[in-house]
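Dear Dr. V.,

Thank you for agreeing to look over these. As mentioned in my earlier message, I'm a first-year student in the group and I'm still getting used to reading structure tokens, so any feedback on how I've presented them would be very welcome. I ran two proteins. I've put each sequence directly above its structure. The first is here:
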Amino acid sequence: QVQLVESGGGSVQAGGSLRLSCAASGRTFSSYAMSWFRQAPGKEREFVAHISASGGTTYYADSVKGRFTISRDNAKNTVYLQMKSLKPEDTAVYYCAAKRSPVVVTTPSYNYWGQGTQVTVSS
């Protein structure tokens, strides 16, 4: 069982930056691949970024590539999403998710989810 708690959301102007954190409970965090998803009002949940269990592999949605960076600290049971050059279209609730998987999974078929943190980007 893994419990996930996101933090770090907020309101910023376009061009600004935020860093989201996702703290995980449990002693097996390092065996889970982690991803960030987001969901804007009236839209489906969409994949943002993925990091493998070891942290050696990352993968990004085209819409955030070059602006967002996913990382993890297995000693702290935490995964991060550094977001730069934010745009109004990045406005959404951001969720972290965990899954035991050796491959990149971009569909929301994850076993564990956090409660989400709101990111609002104004123009």
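The second protein is here, in the same arrangement:
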Amino acid sequence: EVVESGGGLVQAGGSLRLSCAASGRTFSNSALGWFRQAPGKEREFIGASSLSGSSTSNVDSIKGRFIISRDNAKNAVVLQMNSLTPEDTAVYYCARSRSPYYIGGDTSEYDYWGQGTQVTVYS
């Protein structure tokens, strides 16, 4: 099971920090990824963190504004989002990869999904 937290309402230019918490067993054996889905749009890959701590990101989507990191003390993967714009408004999802080292964007490679957390950016 994975659970997202940290969403909310933020003004354009601001920052938000999302957290994806997993059970100890899940976290210690899994890569975790972040996706988002805006109304009327397909789910979009943001990035992921592997078991070894390496990470990847969808450069085109986030343009270097988002940082993914692994917090081993909290069994969580953190998505730090900076310089937010209204185009970042979406439901943000965390998901567990089937492989501990897969950090790509193919949704079929992820088997457990969180319920999502809403991020709304206003101008």
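From my reading of the second output: The two ends are 34 Å apart (CA to CA). The chain is about 5% helix and 50% strand. Does that match how you would interpret it?

Kind regards,
E.
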